[in-house]
Each structure stands twice: as C-alpha cells, then as structure tokens.
Amino acid sequence: MSGDLCQEMLNVLCPMHIVFNDKGEMTSCGPTALKIFPGGLIGRGFLDVFHIKRPRKISTLDALMGQTGVRLNLQFRDMPDSQLQGVVMPGPVAGDMVVNLSFGISIVDAVSDYNLTAADFAATDLTVEMLYLVEAKSAAMEASRRLNERLQVARVEAEELALTDTLTGLKNRRALDQELSALLHQGTPFALMHIDLDFFKAVNDTLGHAAGDYVLQRVAAIMNHETRKVDVVARVGGDEFVILIKGTENHAHIERIAGRIIRKLQNPMHFENEVCQISGSIGTVVAGDYIEPTADLLFADADAALYAAKHAGRGCHLFFSPAMRDMPQTA
C-alpha cells in the first residue's frame, strides 16, 4: 500500500491521528489534529508538544514506543490545554509510530472550544452520535427556553387581562380589591374616591351603546390624565369608577383633583356628529379619618358621600361625614 493511500485512509478513519518517526518528529497528522492545534505540528517533537500524564514516567521516546496498545492520557504542554486520550501503534512505514487521539469525556467542551462538527470525526466514531445527541439536546433546550418565555409572557398577559377592564383599559374590581388590601396592610396614607357618571343612561338610551362605550373610554382617559401613575383608577361598574389616591390625606389636594375631573367630565364629548353631555358626582373617604379602616367600611362610606353629592345637585364632590350614613342612597 502506497504512503499516500495509507495517509488518505488514516485521514478518513482517524482524523485526529499523528505520525512521528524514529526521532520523535511529527511527520504528518490528520485534519482534525491540525484544526485543534493551528500553530502547527509537523516537524516538531511529539514529546516536546505533548506531556504524557499517564502512564507515569513516560518522558523518553523509547518509553513511549514501548507503550503500544496502551491508553495514554495526554495534554498539550502549551496552549491549548485540552485533555486528550490516545493510543500509539507502529505505523505502516518502518520506524514510524501512529498515535490516534480523542477527547474522551471532554468532547462536548472541545466541540465548543475548537468549533468542531461531525465532519471532523470518523463516520463510525461514537463521538458523531454524541454530537447529534448534544445538538438535539441543545435544540430541545433552546426550544424549551423559547416556549417558557412565550408561556411567561402569556401568563403575565393573562394575569394583566384578568385585572383589566377590557373596554377602558382601567383596572377592574378584582385589581382594585388587591390594591386596596395592600394599602390597608401597609398602613400608608391614601384616599378613596367613588365616582358615578350623571346622565350617562340618557346617552345610552338616546345615542346607543356605541356612544356610551365611547364616553366611558373618554372618561377613563380623563381620570388617567388627572391622576399619577402611582394612583389606581378602576372601573367597578357600568358607569362607576373608583380612584385610590396614594400617599396623601390632604383634603385640599384631594379636592383639587376631584375638581379637575368634574370640570373635564362636564365638557361636551362629540361622537359621530352627536354631542354627549354628562357630569360626574364624587364621594371621597380618607383612610386616616378611621381608627381601623376596612375595605367594606371605606366602600360603604364612599358610597354614602357619593349619593350625598348627587342629592346636592350632581356634578360635585363631597368628603364623607358620619351624618351621610343616614341619608337615602337614591338619586
């Protein structure tokens, strides 16, 4: 068999092989061996490049050539510092020795470190099967990661949707209850405004529900504009809204907010060449006015203040006072 044919066979069957002569000089090597050591191997001494870690006491060429058929643990003396395994056998040419190298259990790291592919290994090498498994695992993990990300986004969106009024984009009653419970637990100052639209039924009855929906969306925009992001604006019924104003119990400040909302609500709203005219009545309770405020008590007293505002002529704002509890809640 010619030397060229033998080299071609070694390149295919043992792409990580190295051939060295009786002087220990490397005379040829497979394509993968060249790839993992781009600094060049040909012409260099095998033992100058590789350190034999096991079996021990192999530091001479004679000792190495006496280890035919024995598994060797090797390491590059210089960078790269990859751990290798190998076996040495006499070559087809007298005086030559062939060392077939492999990465062993460090193959996964080596594939990444040297950008190796299945083409860098013999077709029958179990490493090829391992690479397929690693690639399949990586693809599966990436697909799982993307799926988990989508599920996380979907979960957040579903939770947000469950806490949102779909027509106006405001918080719904469930979200309001959560926010109110947190405020009461923390003991932070806040005020609760209960707002009911005046004359909204007339808009629905005369101009239709499309006009009513438009008005509710405009009302939501007004309330968002006149409050801060930290505050909570919620739609709790058909034309009923609640605002939690956080961090303040100053009546004058709260009165200014209510006044701005009422003035904006009284502005005519134009829908398809029709004019929608409404106003808003507001009743407010301040948490600091109670020794032990509860959600039920705050809502009940805010309702009482709201209906007192309606009895006062609509389009106005009143703070709760205990006398309001005895007033009829009809308007």
Automatic annotation (TrEMBL):
Residues 188-322 form the GGDEF domain. GO terms for molecular function: catalytic activity. This is GGDEF domain protein, putative. InterPro entries: DGC-Regulatory_Protein, GGDEF_dom, HNOB_dom_associated_sf, Nucleotide_cyclase, Rev_trsase/Diguanyl_cyclase. CDD domains: GGDEF (cd01949). Pfam families: GGDEF (PF00990). It comes from Roseobacter denitrificans (strain ATCC 33942 / OCh 114) (Erythrobacter sp. (strain OCh 114)). SMART domains: GGDEF.
